[in-house]
Structures are given as structure tokens and as C-alpha cells.
From TrEMBL:
One Pfam family per UniProt: HTH_67
Domain of life: Bacteria
Name of this chain's protein: SalK
NCBIfam families with a match to the protein in the record: SCO6745_fam_HTH
InterPro entries according to UniProt: HTH_67
Length: 279
């Protein structure tokens, strides 16, 4: 499977998954189930497949967030809402957001959800805790909810692999953020503030990357760009493997593109995820 296809699929799948962070239905659902504030909603909703996970577990698997930002939300989140109730709320809310934003999503989901689930079940869960936790959730009977769950599982599969590659290259979560900004992928202020790092901590990480020759004057050096390109290429290669279960995955991708373009209206560009608009 061509690694380029995996990147195309990421661009198509991410807007479907990301309604859980940006859509009003999802933010309201987190509040209604009992979670307090955006960040408790974020960590609680995304972390719920892991059960009553500790702050350390969330910090390690989510990667890139300041420990204090995580600890302000977890484990307190589980006292306000059980992971089981959060899982129901996030699934139903995501489906509502998908239906509102792309009215034809029911027709897309009927055909696409089973194919995506085939890919999910073909994927290797080794070393991928967020993916494994999402894969093992009961698949909703509703096709739109099933579509969202499958996109979420594959999104976390890719993300888990990406985190493994970053750590293998000796990059901390903060340093990975700084390098992404030095590449011009995300404005530094947006990523620093969303991940909870202070200006002083950001500067310290920049200096650490500069000592490695990866960043100079807030811009990635040739070595920094080469390292980032290598990590992204390997991320695509690892993410591509499960799609070989489909004889021809391209029609699946093409069926998702119209919905993905419509759902991009729910996201800011640029965004902390680093997702570009689907061409």
C-alpha cells in the first residue's frame, strides 16, 4: 500500500473524527454528561475508552500536553462522569454533528462504515494503546455512529504510531510541538497555548532543539526539516498497512471526500492538529 494513500486517508478521516473537539453538539454533550470546561471535556471524552485512566496515562498517550493541564482535568473527570456515560454521549453527539454538517452522511455511512471497520480489525494494536482501546469498544448499530467510531479508531492508530516515532527520535512532546511550529505547520502561539506550555518552557525546548541543530531562530534547519520529513513518511507507512485488507481502498476514500470537505467548516485553519484543508 502506497504511504501517500495513508496521508490522503488521514486528510479525509480527520475532519469526520474532529467534530468531537470542535462541534457545538460535542462540547454541549460533554457539559451535559457532567464534565466541567473544555479541557476536562477533551481529556475525558478522548480518554474514556481507556477507562478511569490516571493523569500519567493520559499525558503519555495523548503526548504534547503540559502535565499540569492534564492533571487539572484527570482523574477528577471520572468523579463527574463515568467513562461509560461519556462514551455514549460522545458517540451520539458526534453523529448529530455529522448529520447537521453533511445531510448525506447516512448514505455514506451505510457503505463506508463496514469497510472502515474491516481496516480497523486488520490493524496491528501492538504498542498502540489509544487505538486498541477504541477498537475494542462495541461497534454502534447506528451507521453514522459506527462511521465516527471507525474513523476515530484509525485516527488513534495513526497517532499512536506517530508518537512512537517521535519518542524514538528523542523528541519530547513539547519538543515535537516546537519542531512542528518551526516547520510553519501551526502558529507557535496557538500550539503553545492550546497545549499549556509557558513561554519559558517553550524557549527551553527551542534551545534544546537548537543544540541538536534542528532549529535556528525559531525556524527548522535543513536537518530539522529532514527529520520531520522522515517521521511523517514513516507515520504514513505505518498507517498504510491496515488498508491492504481492501482490494481497492480508493473508492472508499473518494466516498468520504465530500463529507470531509463539508465537515472542515467545523474546524479552524490552521489548527492545533496540523491538518491542512482537503484539496
Amino acid at each position: 500500500m502506497d504511504a501517500t494513500f495513508a496521508r490522503d486517508m488521514w486528510k479525509a478521516l480527520e475532519p469526520l473524527h474532529a467534530v468531537t473537539y470542535f462541534a457545538e453538539e460535542c462540547r454541549t454533550a460533554n457539559k451535559d454528561v457532567g464534565l466541567k470546561g473544555f479541557w476536562m471535556g477533551y481529556f475525558g471524552s478522548r480518554g474514556a475508552p481507556l477507562g478511569r485512566a490516571s493523569a500519567g496515562t493520559i499525558q503519555a498517550t495523548f503526548f504534547g500536553f503540559h502535565p499540569a493541564r492534564v492533571r487539572r482535568a484527570v482523574p477528577d473527570a471520572w468523579e463527574f462522569a463515568s467513562p461509560e456515560s461519556i462514551l455514549v454521549a460522545r458517540s451520539e453527539a458526534a453523529a448529530r454533528a455529522l448529520r447537521r454538517t453533511f445531510p448525506g452522511i447516512e448514505d455514506v455511512a451505510v457503505d463506508a462504515a463496514p469497510l472502515l471497520q474491516e481496516v480497523v480489525m486488520a490493524a496491528d494494536a501492538s504498542g498502540r494503546p489509544l487505538f486498541a482501546a477504541n477498537r475494542d469498544l462495541p461497534l454502534p448499530e447506528n451507521p453514522v455512529e459506527a462511521l465516527w467510531q471507525a474513523t476515530t479508531s484509525l485516527r488513534e492508530h495513526r497517532g499512536d504510531g506517530h508518537v512512537a516515532l517521535l519518542t524514538a527520535e528523542g523528541l519530547s512532546g513539547l519538543e515535537a510541538n516546537v519542531l512542528a511550529c518551526a516547520m510553519g505547520i501551526v502558529p507557535p502561539e496557538r500550539l503553545r497555548e492550546s497545549r499549556g506550555w509557558s513561554p519559558e518552557e517553550w524557549d527551553e525546548a527551542s534551545e534544546a532543539l537548537a543544540r541538536r541543530g534542528l532549529v535556528a531562530e525559531a525556524e527548522a534547519t535543513e536537518a530539522g526539516r529532514a527529520l520531520k520529513a522522515h517521521i511523517e513518511q514513516r507515520t504514513d507507512e505505518l498507517a498504510a498497512a491496515p488498508y491492504t485488507v481492501l482490494a481497492d481502498p480508493r473508492p472508499l476514500y473518494e466516498s468520504l471526500v465530500p463529507a470531509s470537505k463539508a465537515l472542515a467548516t467545523e474546524m479552524p485553519f490552521p489548527n492545533p492538529i496540523g491538518l491542512p484543508r482537503l484539496a
